[in-house]
Amino acid sequence: MSNPEPLVLIASHGAVRHLTLNRPALLNSFTSAMHGELLAALDAAAADSAVRAVIVTGAGRGFCAGQDLTDSAMVATDKGIDVGAVIKRHYRPLALRIRSMPVPVVAAVNGVAAGAGANFALCCDLVVAARGASFIQAFSKIGLVPDCGGTWLLPRLVGRSRALGLAMLGDKLPAEEAQRMGLIWQCVADADLPAAALALAQRLAQLPSVALVETRRVLDQAMALDFGDALTLEAQTQTALGRGHDFVEGVAAFFAKRPPSFSDR
Fold this sequence. Notes:
By secondary structure, the protein is an alpha/beta fold. It has 2 domains: 8-205, 2-enoyl-CoA Hydratase, Chain A, domain 1 (Alpha-Beta Complex), CATH 3.90.226.10; 209-256, no CATH class. It has helices at residues 32-47, 83-99, 116-123, 150-158, 160-169, 175-180, 193-205, 209-222, 227-242, 245-256; strands at residues 8-13, 16-21, 53-58, 62-64, 105-109, 112-114, 126-130, 134-136, 172-174, 186-188. Helix 1 links the parallel strand 2 and strand 3 (53-58). Helix 1 packs parallel to helix 2, helix 4 packs across helix 5 (160-169) and helix 8 (209-222) packs antiparallel against helix 9. It is globular and about 65 Å long.
């Protein structure tokens, strides 16, 4: 008997690790098993010093349709379905893993990204979407609130008014409109998505990984700080980065008028 098809396909393109959600017949909706494989793949990429950027995409015509409501984790008991337990067991670790990766993560959204699938994409550092892709905050349609970090991400990305509109109405948001409102980084032609995502990830892989990850951290933390405290955080971070190889290399390359070779991670 042959082994079942992996739920997450893993490939490497130089310093870029490519992860593909692989349940195309069901628009790559999340199950407990797929969560396990995806988290393991992200942990492996984080632990591999040769990896300097990660791409996450979906197989087939969708990126991720959110939670598979037929998964065993969603089976009702006499007390109903404990959706919060599913969040704690699977989505919280996934969102925290993405936001703590030691390298940049690019989401290549190739089709529909709905519910937790949309917010999983938004957890990534940069989102590139095909023109035919769409984002749907589908939670209100089944009596829930945004999860997988959506309540934190949406108002920070597009402001309170648009966040409420997206979350309450649950309308399909085309990728071009998502780019216009600042929800995602870039929208490209459908056929160009794989190459565009890889080019972006390769560009990130050539940049100083530690500085990029620290940029993610300080931008997130500064949102909760006043201006003076943000300046203090900047100074503390620059002190640490200024002692690293990448700063020395970057300055040397600047004066030598040559491409830098960054290696810190």
